[in-house]
TrEMBL record, chain A:
GO terms for biological process: cell adhesion involved in single-species biofilm formation; negative regulation of bacterial-type flagellum-dependent cell motility. This is diguanylate cyclase. PROSITE patterns: GGDEF. It comes from Allosphingosinicella deserti. The lineage of its organism: Bacteria, Pseudomonadati, Pseudomonadota, Alphaproteobacteria, Sphingomonadales. Residues 193-327 form the GGDEF domain.
UniProtKB/TrEMBL annotation, chain B:
This is Uncharacterized protein. It comes from the Bacteria.
Length: 328, 73
């Protein structure tokens, strides 16, 4: 399972997206850590590097004068493929890096130590790196220090993730979900990539609370979130918008496929027996509204409104069904 | 006199508690590895202060965001 995650670059990229950190400005914790790494290990270059699909981007760096480089020439793309630190004592003697432009030209990396930055889900999203312009042997003590700094970088990244997770269900909070939707809409505007939004509402949820109590209602929401996360792809985003209303963002998915995904989810909910505290077993259904992204959408608010209108249609259509908005 | 994360224990939402504890463990491990490498106490103390300060700021931001989410939800 662990090794599968090392090979799952799409899942890794989704985990990176969830951190909501790419292309953000300088931030104190990371700036301090690279300064400390440079000082304590006495290296001229230290970076917190995040590895995107086609580039490595420096969240914080000392000793470099570029914000990013192509991934294809990065040392870190090798680091994230393993659980252990990547140590290169002399790049000139390592066939993977001997003719690397970052070795032959600026910043003339000669030795490198990189510790993978691992998310709580087990994906290596980047690495904490120490680099020198001369050959160097990194001692076990150096690696222990760098590894402990890397753990603290991961703590800082995880803190953001926790802050945007709904405590009851583990789904993204409304705020976190809206941020993801904004980025997806921007991606569509820039690259014309397809994407779809699904709004989900538990049918007759009030009666669950009224008849079985709020703890039972909470349990239904928890189980519905589990079913959804099991049904969705790692690249999809799942959020709780409030109360019994959830939403899913399906990147790279057109309207028809999104409707099919919504139907799979609806059927999974319908098939599930919700075991509640006290031994009660309930059958629950959900209604879903689907809207794919389109040039006619001026804002995330418009996109949500379009999916919400479809959810309303699904409710009016008798519940336990999905409705797809027609394209402009 | 600056507050340490532990001083906030009573205010920290349960969903952040584990993260705070983990951070404290990682910080302790870092101190251990710095000492083992022969780094001076002054440098260790300065490092810990800097890391604690920035983590506390991030933690406060996270708590603020969570309170905001709860009031919106």
């Amino acid at each position: 399972m662990v090794e599968q995650k090392l090979a799952d670059d799409e899942g890794r990229l989704s985990a990176l997206r969830r951190l909501d950190v790419m292309d953000t400005g300088p931030e104190e914790p990371f700036e301090k850590i690279v300064t400390l790494v440079r000082t304590v290990l006495a290296v001229p270059i230290a970076t917190v590097t995040l590895v995107d699909r086609h580039r490595q981007w420096f969240k914080a760096q000392r000793g470099l004068d570029v914000p990013e480089t192509p991934r294809s020439i990065s040392f870190c793309t090798h680091t994230i493929r393993q659980r252990d630190p990547l140590i290169v004592e002399d790049a000139h003697l390592d066939q993977r890096f001997a003719d690397n432009p970052l070795v032959l030209g600026a910043p003339r990396i000669r030795s490198y130590a990189g510790i993978p930055l691992r998310t709580p889900e087990g994906y290596n999203v980047g690495s904490l790196c120490a680099m020198d312009n001369k050959p160097r042997r990194f001692s076990p003590a150096d690696i222990a220090i760098l590894s402990n700094f890397a753990n603290i970088v991961s703590d800082e990244l995880e803190l953001r993730l926790i802050a945007q997770s709904d405590y009851l269900t583990g789904a993204l909070t409304r705020r976190g979900f809206e941020e993801q939707a904004k980025r997806e809409l921007a991606r569509h505007s820039r690259y014309g990539r397809p994407s779809a939004l699904v709004m989900i509402d538990v049918d007759h949820f009030k009666s669950v609370n009224d008849s079985h109590g709020h703890p039972a209602g909470d349990e239904v929401l928890r189980q519905l979130a589990d079913i959804s996360l099991d049904t969705l792809r790692p690249s999809d985003a799942f959020g709780r918008l409030g109360g019994e209303e959830f939403a899913v963002l399906l990147p790279e998915t057109g309207g028809a496929d999104a409707l099919a995904a919504a139907e799979r989810l609806r059927q999974a909910v319908e098939a599930h027996s919700f075991d509640l505290p006290g031994g009660t077993r309930l059958k629950i259904t959900a209604s879903l509204g689907v809207a794919s992204v389109s040039p006619g959408l001026a804002s995330v608010g418009d996109w949500f409104a379009r999916a919400d209108a479809m959810l309303y249609e699904a409710k009016n259509g008798g519940r336990n069904c999905s409705r797809l908005a027609l394209q402009d | 006199m600056q507050n340490q994360p532990g001083d906030y224990a009573a205010q920290i939402p349960p969903e952040l508690q584990q993260s705070v504890e983990r951070h404290q463990r990682h910080l302790a491990a870092l101190v251990g590895s710095l000492r083992a490498a022969g780094v001076g106490e002054e440098m260790i103390e300065a490092s810990v202060h800097q890391l604690l300060d920035s983590y506390r700021n991030e933690l406060t931001d996270a708590m603020r965001a969570m309170v905001k989410d709860q009031s919106c939800g």
